Amino acid sequence: MIVLANDGIEESAKNALEALGFAVDTNKYTGEELLARLPEVDVVVIRSATTMGKEELDAGKSGKLRLVIRAGVGMDNIDARYAKEVGITATNTPAASSNAVAELALAHMLSLSRYLYISNVSMRKKKWLKNEYLGSEISGKTLGIVGIGNIGYALGEKAAALGMNVLYTNRRGDLGDAVPFAEFRSMEDLLRESDFVSLHTPKMGDRPLMGEEEIAMMKDGAYLINLARGGIVDEGALLKALDSGKLAGAGLDVYSVEPMEDERILSHEKISMTPHIGASTEEAQARIGGNIVQIVQEFYHV
């Protein structure tokens, strides 16, 4: 049986799958080449670069494909409903990268509040702007978490340990004692009360979660953090809020278009940015690889 790791796979996971008798193809296929390859493989492992939509799933179902694994949390790039209809199991590794993403969200918050992101650049240009970088401490500030899944929960625990007041909103409503370090709020109240708002939800529908109306609800001088999905923040509305001073800053790891090439974002002095590296730690990749092997083992009973 063949596992196609179209966006790559951790070496130890590749070795483990081969030890179980699977052939692991780590070549990168796109377009017609991908459609031609899919009927020939039993399992597809993808990250965020490959989409498994109806066309790809139809190609796979015509052959041997029975399992699609998203090496990560979000499954926006898999048509999971259609996969189920055609008898292909679609799954992910939801908890493996939670700590890594939570730490990066916290890093962006600290980077923004203490000007690490911009002073690192200005000093390399031989500018000593000590008096311009009067920051603020995150201890005592309020963090609002939108989506209290694995990542949101991990972030909330860390923030509370650092002395932050933690609020959350969630599609499942108030989870009570299941989230002992935080208080539940409606989305509107969370936006109004939070000094930092961190997004940890999938993309739903065509409308951004944070558009002009939602950003207007936020506290003046607040910070917006998005490590969840590109497109859930209206980037035009965000830039407008940063330029007007409505928001003090933003921390971004995901973008509506990747690689991000919008010069307005790339050059903005109020944006701390990273190139979609939320899960890019050695530890997270090892856990993801281990989860992939476990999923394949359980699916094929090997």
List keywords for this structure.
302 residues, 2 domains, Rossmann fold, 7-stranded parallel sheet, single chain, alpha/beta
Mean pLDDT: 96
Shape: elongated
Beta-strand content: 15-25%
CATH superfamily of the largest domain: NAD(P)-binding Rossmann-like Domain
Total separate domains: 2
Q: Helix coverage percent of residues? A: 25-40%
- What is the CATH T-level topology of the largest domain? Rossmann fold
Counting DSSP E segments of at least 2 residues, the number of strands comes to: 12
Strand arrangement, major sheet: 8-7-6-9-10-11-12
Query: Span between N and C termini?
Result: 12 Å
CATH classification class of the largest domain:
Alpha Beta
Helix-strand layout with pairing:
Blueprint: E1 2-5, H1 11-19, E2 23-25, H2 31-37, E3 43-46, H3 54-61, E4 67-70, H4 80-85, E5 89-92, H5 98-113, H6 116-124, E6 142-146, H7 150-161, E7 165-169, E8 182-184, H8 187-193, E9 196-199, H9 212-217, E10 222-226, H10 235-244, E11 247-252, H11 263-266, E12 271-273, H12 282-300
Parallel strand pairs: 1-2, 1-3, 3-4, 4-5, 6-7, 6-9, 7-8, 9-10, 10-11, 11-12
Helix pairs in contact: 1-12, 2-3, 5-7
Architecture overview:
With 302 residues, the protein is an alpha/beta fold. The chain has helices at 11-19, 31-37, 54-61, 80-85, 98-113, 116-124, 150-161, 187-193, 212-217, 235-244, 263-266, 282-300; strands at 2-5, 23-25, 43-46, 67-70, 89-92, 142-146, 165-169, 182-184, 196-199, 222-226, 247-252, 271-273. It has 2 domains: 2-96 and 282-300, NAD(P)-binding Rossmann-like Domain (Rossmann fold, 3-Layer(aba) Sandwich); 98-273, NAD(P)-binding Rossmann-like Domain (Rossmann fold, 3-Layer(aba) Sandwich). It contains 12 helices and 12 strands. The strands form 2 sheets. Strands 8-7-6-9-10-11-12 form a 7-stranded parallel beta sheet, sandwiched between helices. A 5-stranded parallel beta sheet has the order 2-1-3-4-5. Helix 2 packs parallel to helix 3 (54-61) and helix 5 packs across helix 7 (150-161).
